[in-house]
Amino acid sequence: MSERTTESNNKADKRRKTLKISDLKQLSKIFAYVGPHKGLWALGFVFLLITMITSLLFPKLLGGLMSSSPDNLRDNMLQMMGLLLVQSIASFFRVVIFVTVTERALAAIREDLYSRLIHLPMTFFSSKRVGELNSRVASDTSQIGETLTTTLAEFLRGISMVIGGITILAFTSIKLTLFIVAVIPPLILVTIIFGRFIRKYSKKVQDEVAASNTIVEETFAGIQTVKAFANEAWERNRYAKRVSAIVGIAVRGGYYRGAFASFITFGLFGAIALVIWFGAGMVHEGQLAGEKLNEFILYALFIGGSIGGLASVYAQLQKAIGATETIFNLMEETPEMDINSENAASIDVSKVAFSKVNFSYPTRTDVQVLKSVSFDLNRGKTLALVGRSGSGKSTIASLLMRFYAIENGVVTVNKKPLSEIDLKAWRNALAFVPQDVLLFGGTIRENIAYGDTKAGEEQIIEAAKQANAWEFIQGFPEGLETTVGERGVQLSGGQRQRIAIARALLKDPQLLILDEATSALDSESEQLVQEALERLMKGRTSVVIAHRLSTIRNADQILVLNEGEVTERGSHDELIDQGGIYAELVKLQNVAKASNEF
Question: pTM score, two decimals?
Answer without folding.
Answer: 0.71
